[in-house]
Design goal:
single chain, alpha/beta, Rossmann fold, N-(1-d-carboxylethyl)-l-norvaline Dehydrogenase, domain 2, 2 domains, 9-stranded mixed beta sheet, 14 helices
């Protein structure tokens, strides 16, 4: 896959960094986001602007989408000005939103009727992973489509794994979010304990980050917690959405996930307290 004509829908915290990688690697990128002002820095770097997803995808090869909620995904693909209005046979659509597996399957099925290939490819790694081009990408769909898309995904991903049929990428992302949800409780309780014990938390991290307790959250988010830096690498409001999807899916499968349920309850309280626009590391405020 050489230099592609790409439509990118949703230039938020992570999406903007992904677009920068695509531009730096010589791809022609047209962007759409609800607020054009958010896309201005990308336009300055060479991206084109479109007034709708349909316009952005017209005469393009690939569409990448990264929006907020499942309802947004539905609108971006199936709406009056959605991608499927201008999709052409041979195109590829790749949804990187963390969304519902059933929507991924719906997109795949409709794409098939148009001769379009579809992948669900949610990512993990937060703002740092997007900036560094080291995201983990979990992909569902047809293997041949995955093989075609890998060269583009490699522009911003370092760990790109094919998970299986349509929807499998979203299920894998739920596994990822379940680990993070419970892990964030552990990170916050560790810092709360260390603080109460009168320890220097930065010194504590030097010891525990590289031991058996080590994790991405401990290495990347705990330092932000210590500085009371709650700027979003990943919004609490979106994390709550992800946990709700995982809880709903687990209920459908007949399994109980009490750790996830506890994390969901705690983050819900933070949203009620007005922290929805903060990063997930703001969970520490629950303990303060």
């Amino acid at each position: 896959m050489g230099k592609e004509r790409i439509a990118f829908i949703g230039t938020g915290v992570m999406g903007a960094s992904i677009v920068k990688h695509l531009l730096q690697n010589g791809h022609e990128v047209t962007v759409y986001t609800r607020t054009k002002e958010k896309a201005e820095p990308l336009i300055v770097l060479g991206a084109s602007w479109a007034s709708s997803p349909a316009e952005a995808f017209k005469d393009k090869d690939i569409a990448l989408t990264m929006v907020g909620y499942p309802a947004d995904v539905e609108e971006v693909y199936f709406g009056e000005n959605g991608l499927f209005q201008t999709a052409e046979a041979g195109n590829i659509v790749i949804d990187m939103t963390t969304s519902e597996p059933t929507i991924a399957k719906k997109i795949y099925a409709h794409a098939q009727t148009l001769g379009v290939e579809a992948l669900d490819a949610p990512v993990s790694g937060g703002d740092v992973g997007a900036q560094n081009g080291t995201l983990s990408i979990m992909v569902g769909g047809d293997q041949m489509t995955f093989n075609r898309a890998v060269p583009v995904l490699q522009q911003f991903g370092a760990n790109i794994v094919y998970q299986g049929e349509a929807g499998a990428g979203q299920h894998a992302k739920m596994c990822n979010q379940i680990v993070i949800a419970s892990g964030m409780i552990g990170v916050c309780e560790s810092l709360a304990y260390g603080l109460k014990a009168g320890l220097d938390l930065s010194t504590v991290l030097q010891s525990i980050s590289s031991g058996a307790a080590g994790s991405w959250s401990l290495s990347n988010l705990a330092p932000r917690m210590i500085k009371e830096d709650y700027a979003p690498g990943f919004y609490i409001k979106h994390f709550v959405k992800d946990m709700k999807i995982a809880l709903d899916e687990s209920k459908k499968m007949g399994i109980s996930l009490p750790g996830l349920a506890l994390a969901y309850e705690m983050y819900e309280k933070l949203i009620e307290a007005g922290y929805g626009e903060n990063g997930t590391q703001a969970l520490l405020t629950y303990y303060k």
